[in-house]
Amino acid sequence: MTAILLAKLKHLLRNPWAFLGFTGICIVFALIMGLTGFESRSSVPIVIADEEVTGSSILTTLNDEESISFKEVEEDALIQSVKEGKAEVGAILNKDTYELIVGVESTTVSSVDNMIRQAYTEYGQRQKIIEHIGDLKQTENALQKEIDEASKNPVFSVTTSNFTTDQTMMYDPIYQYVFGFGLFFVIYTVAYNVLPMLIEKQEGVWDRLILSPVKKWKMYAGNMIYSFCIGYLQVLIIFSFFYFVFGVDFNGKFPETLLLLIPYVFTIVALSILLTAIVKNSQQFNAFITILAVCMAMVGGAYWPIEIVESNFLIAISKINPLTYGMEILHGVVNYGYSLEELFYPVSILLLMGTVMIGVGIHLMERRHI
Amino acid sequence: MLELVNISKKFKQTYAVKNMNMFMERGEIVGLLGPNGAGKSTAISIMSSLVEPTAGEVYFDNRSILKNPTSFRKVAGIVPQEIALYEDLTAEENLRFFGRIYQIKGKQLQKRIEDVLQIIGLADRKKEVVKTYSGGMKRRLNIGVALLHEPELLIMDEPTVGIDAQSRKYILETVKQLNKEMNVTILYTSHYMEEVEYLCNRIYIMDKGNLIAAGTKEEINRILSGEKSIVIKASHLTNPFIYELKTYPLVNSVDVMDKQITVMVSKEVNLFKDLIAMADEANIELISVNIKTPTLEDVFLHLTGRALRD
């Protein structure tokens, strides 16, 4: 078994490009998609039609919004932007009123409307208080300061929280794409490291090994352990890269995340063994694994959260997809803070799938003597 | 040393090997001949313990290899027809890998690698990766791998397929040397009759899963000792001409290949004049007529109705 592992390792050192390529592509994709998603604030053009708005709290309140970025433009540019569909909505801000220019009725429009109305309400309240005090400029300034101070240090604070239920989805694009692409690309890496078993069988190397005193289980174990290690090394590199280089902290669950990848990688090794047993040659294997990996990623929630999938058929298919459980484990431990008991179910399913697939795969290979 | 007793192998409804009996004595080189599909590879797979027969038994030193394959595998070396090597590794790394598989370790392994590299003549190219080798060099390394554990029995399945004449000669000499100097018993299959004639003490001929002849070269040749062969080459052949030859009373057998006909007749028969007359009558232009004593190739053709390379 050691001889098999050493030979495979030598092969990897001599041809590391596929491994490095898959790892690199995965990091780049997760970076592009994750960080883009992370910073994707909708942009809404605004026109300031009254000078008084510029120095008022309206603009400050709007600029503090996290989900929408308000950008000041000329009126012509705003209309053009909405007309061309570059912006769903634009706003013209006057001293006491505002006007929305709507291109498409959407949830963004009502959000923008709410935000601007809120900003005007707060501004109006302030103005009312100031008017109530009187016209003295000095008093007005002092009051402004006092209101600001009071806003920063309220007499009492209200904490808001929401219930999370089974139906509640937590979405963080960086985790979605790091997990998704990590689990997706490891399918290729593992599969292409199991494929040599098929090639060795076709080229007679496998028979040569059988005709040596080495035990057959050691031959299978050597190949599977190597494929597992390579697959695991890849996700280890990818996750470590985001953890150490980009400071993605996995919500403090980095070691647990790495540990919980083990059942998933094991199942992918098993799946590759099964596929190797089913196909007749490497061409078929290449075609199959390409289609299978993409389907698994789509149905398993690697490209987008599985929670947004509505088709019952696809949801049913996802239940026999190892990637679904891999994503569930990773999201569970990082985003939802699942306990060990809660993770037991997807981990068990993966281990069961892996064991069955290895058993069936090896049985088929031996029966067909491929 | 090696004995096959009533070996049969059935795939679905077809027998690849049927009731095969064969033996090999220590120190012999035995040839196994047969056209494509004769069952040679299946027979070799069975006697190398790779495939279990449907019926029969294989003994090595009077012990069943089917019941105890591991001990047999320790003393048997197999040279498969395919180049069963890791192309990304060097010759030395390949030998080291297979040496470890055969549980040879440390200094002993290093010594065996060097010895084998000397035998197969690749000592000066040992650091080069196999994929840069010529076909002949790969074939030599393919043999080398089977020699690492100093086997008592070497089973070689067409080890010279697809290589140049020089490499072929080198391999034949190596096989001869292994047998002579190291007393390795060798089973050799080939498509080249001259290789078998040059190397082997005894020959088995298979066709359609059956052993159809067995014996020393002389014994096999004696099958056609009372006959001679007439090899006719013609510009074209017609069915009436072939039919006339086949039904001619003095002709024992006729084998047709492309534009060549081999006619077997008794030694005392003179067919030359009649042959010319028959060709004239059929408007066939004869290019050459060659009369010779039958060779092993003729015997093979006579027994199987096919040339060895068919």
From TrEMBL, chain A:
Asked if the keyword Cell membrane belongs to this entry, the reply reads yes
- Give its localization: Cell membrane
In the bilayer, the protein is annotated as: Multi-pass membrane protein
- The region annotated as signal peptide is none
Pfam families, alphabetically? Answer: ABC2_membrane_3
Q: What is its main location?
A: membrane
According to its UniProt record, which protein family does this protein belong to? Belongs to the ABC-2 integral membrane protein family.
Q: What is this protein called?
A: ABC-2 type transport system permease protein
Q: What is the lineage of its organism?
A: Bacteria, Bacillati, Bacillota, Bacilli, Bacillales
From TrEMBL, chain B:
What protein is this chain from?
ABC-2 type transport system ATP-binding protein
UniProt key word Nucleotide-binding: yes
Q: Could you tell me which residue ranges the ABC transporter domain spans?
A: 2-233
The answer on whether this UniProt entry bears the keyword Signal reads no
Query: In which organism is this protein found?
Result: Virgibacillus chiguensis
The record's annotation in PROSITE patterns points to: ABC_TRANSPORTER_1, ABC_TRANSPORTER_2
State the source organism's domain of life: Bacteria
Q: What is the lineage of its organism?
A: Bacteria, Bacillati, Bacillota, Bacilli, Bacillales
Kindly give the Pfam families that the UniProt entry links to this protein: ABC_tran (PF00005)
